[in-house]
Amino acid sequence: MDVALKSYQLQLRKIFPIIIVLISLSLIGTIYVQYNWLQTMLVDKQEEFKYKMERGIHDVGKMLMDQKGTLPSLKNFRTKPNFNWPSEQFQMELMKPPTIAQKFTEFEVDEKLRKSFENQGLQNLKFEFAITSNVSLLSYELKSRGYLKAEEELNLAEGGDSLAADYFHFIYVFQPPSGSDLENLVPEEIMSVIVPNVKKIILQQMKWMIVGAVFFTIMIIAAFYVTVTALLRQKKLSEIKNDFINNMTHEFKTPLATISLAVDALRNDKVLQDRTKMDYFSGIIKEENKRMNKHVETILQAAVMDRQELQLNKQPIHVHDLIHEIMDNYILQLDEKQGQADLNLSARQDYIEADPVHFRNLISNLIDNAVKYSKENLVLKITTHSTSKNLVIRVEDNGIGMSKETVRRIFEKFYRAHTGNLHNVKGFGLGLSYVKTIVDAHQGKIKVESVLGRGSAFTLELPLLKKKAVTETADIHHHN
Fold first, then answer.
1. 0.85 surpassed by pTM
2. What confidence tens digit (pLDDT) does each residue in 272-286 have?
3. Rounded CA separation 362/366 (Å)
């Protein structure tokens, strides 16, 4: 199984970079294609807009020429006695048809242009217009209110001013039909139409297309992120699983080997005849059996936490008494490390509501962690103090400490800190994960401070029992 896992991990390490590169190239290619598609669509929309504008202006120009009127008929003039017929020059002036500017008002031209543009699908279009003749190009016979400003900005835009907005400028020349009576009788008139902020108008028309493209691009990026995250998690889980199986194998092989040797020794005739040796080897078997049961219990606890089936049997607990009881069990381990325990339990209030079994395991795991990851001459400090709402417990040691990466991941399940040349530290990496779960289950907080080579400190904050509950608990103990 170990070989198979290592083989799978090796394959995953090889395939992972290839997957990342392929997905990255696909993502970049998709974004590039969408960008080019939007650019092409913008150009097409500009051409379509220009065509619609030209059609709309042409329709208005033709309409204005048709409605302007034709030459007046001489039959409409009645003669009187002694009437002197006007001179030829006066007749020509009299018969000259009105110009566009004379026939229509600014409002009328504006309305015709607006309706024509709406017919072309250009609703709520902002534009400015002016009408002049080829005789007086510098003075406008008819113009909209904002035309002069639009013309000035247009000149700036054509001059390359980067701050000026983009403009479309359309020129329409009013011409009577070739060979008609109106030809050469009136000056040629010109209508100028300026549309500001064309790109803004076109982008507004493309709004939903752009939103859709951006939305789906974000979706692709999100999918890419989720995929990569899932692959990294899978890779991490594979490594954790491999480490866990290795740790579990070593943790169970050692007591099994010891039990096997003890059983073989008990079969020896000399040992069978010596009661002291029999008791010694029987004691070894019992201790190793306890050790194996403890490992099994740890794994089962992890499984229960995974299924979120953790059920607490909360009771009022005197934390100071519990800490003293736990420390009594670590006297031998502290002696092995030539260490000492410094207890400063100064909290004025130390009653909390907690599960006795799980809370004992929580404190034991913190102390056990300090003892395991320590050097000689260990100094273990446990202090308490209380605030108005919480009991604060601090477990501090002068051990090997942890790196910033280890501190960040210390409460992750199966994570074990790298201990350098220290190879005698055993376990599954479940202790501190269990601690964090139990603290959370008691609505508490835990934080860790550590300096590599100097030691670590774990600080717990747990809600205190209310004063009424404390009084009731104290009365019960008093009566007992």
1. no
2. 888 888 888 888 888
3. 7
- Domain 315-479, what fold? Heat Shock Protein 90 (3.30.565)
Taking the C-alpha atoms of residue 203 and residue 165, their distance in angstroms, rounded to an integer, is 14
Which one, of 142, 146, 151, lies nearest residue 191 by Cα? Answer: 142
Whole-angstrom Cα distance, residue 410 to residue 402? 9
Mind listing the pLDDT tens digit for each residue in 383-424?
999 888 899 999 998 888 888 888 887 877 666 655 444 444
Rounded distance between C-alpha atoms, residue 136 and residue 121, angstroms: 34
Taking the alpha carbons of 344, 348, 354, 355 in that order, is the dihedral positive or negative? positive
Domain with CATH 3.30.565.10 in the chain: 315-479
- Residues 258, 438: Cα–Cα separation, whole Å: 33
Please say if the pLDDT value at position 87 is more than 50: no
Number of other residues whose CB lies within 10 A of the CB of residue 243:
16
End-to-end Cα distance, the chain: 57
Tokens of 475: 């009365």
Q: Which fold has domain 209-306?
A: Helix Hairpins (1.10.287)
Residue ranges of the chain assigned to CATH 1.10.287.130: 209-306
Tokens of 23: 């997905």
How wide is the angle at C-alpha 135 spanned by C-alphas 134 and 139, nearest 5°? Answer: 90
Distance in angstroms (rounded) separating the CA atoms of residues 317 and 352:
5
Contacts for 375 with CB less than 8 Å, ≥ 6 apart: 337, 398, 399, 400
Q: CB-side exposure of 111: number of CA atoms within 13 Å? A: 5
β-partners of residue 458 are: 395, 448
Exposure class string for 3-33: b at 16+ Cβ within 10 A, else e: eebeeeeeeeeeeeeeeeeebeeeeeeeeee
Q: Which two tokens stand for residue 196?
A: 């500001």
- The token pair that represents 469 in the structure block: 């509950």
